[in-house]
Queue: 2 jobs
Job 1
Amino acid sequence: MRGLWWCGGLTEYEPGVQAAHLGSRDPRLQGTASNGRECGQVGGQARGGGRGDDDVGDRLGGMALPPLIRRLLDVKLAAWCDARVPEHIRDELRYEHGIRGNSATLFEVRPYWDGRPGETRQPFAQIRLKDDVFVLYCSDRNGRWHEFTPFVPSPDLDDVLAEIEEDRTCIFFG
């Protein structure tokens, strides 16, 4: 996703915390947001990336993600989405992500087939944090989310992304 990204107001990085707690080995997470800018705050309140819905989980009674885990999801999912589609067809297909409450949703974005302005956003996978592990969900034909049982929940986000990429059952990409 493009635009200005904030990572919950974290301006310092503690090396031992990220690797031990989040299971991440990604050096890009050290002190910057997904667009390479320094993390910060707007108007004294922490802001989240994406669609400006970082505190939705609190408003809806759910639990919001901790700032480091949110940044991990934001950076890794943005990189995964960008790497998934070649540059020359991004006007016809791209992948985006959104973070809300304790979950991150992956979307397939395409222009309308009949040429009218706008685009469609179809969610195809959701990653939720439960008890310090990432759980993968898939959507049914009615838009309801169900745990993807062939995948064993993992504390490493890379395992979840590898499972989506492999798509053994063809549930995510058809």
Job 2
Amino acid sequence: MEKINKKWLKEEILFLKKEFEKGDKNKLVKKIGRNWEAIYIKARRLNLKRKVRFNLGKSNGQWKGGVNEDYYNRIARENLVWECSHCKSKKKLEIHHKDRNRKNNRLSNLMVLCSKCHGKEHKKLNGWSLKFKKCVLCGKTKYPHFGKGYCRLCYKKTFRKEKDKEYRLRTQEYQKKRHREYYLKNKEKWDRYYKSAQRISNGIQGR
């Protein structure tokens, strides 16, 4: 049995500081001779962090050719200056591929941009959109392309009304079906209710 309350030696602490960042659990447990929980608690007290927790890059079993955002984000953070290359802002940063190929993650092909500059860069390459040069309805390029050749405002004006009408018709049809089903299930009760209501109304009118 391992002694949990055993004091840490200087050699063990030095070894922990060197090897904990690499993240090899089995090596630390064998060399130090303690449980992983005790080693982890001691590392937290010494403010140590594990840099590598799993295999990165091609050695990982879930490798998808470098298309994942985390992969090229990590490359850019390690090697490039983390600020927008156009306006030099440090908010809402994204990574732009110059040749539009996400699999090409060379440093010469990557560029750090904010969300606004990233949109402008794609606008230069594509124009207003891939198929349309301007909005079909208003004929302007002030607002970005939203869908089907319409800008954001025109799309909402044209298609939102149609969607609202469809939704109302669907709800009305659904309610009618539900009422019909409920009436057929409880037909006898409703017939009795209507008959009693008619008798009462006839009696009041007779007076």
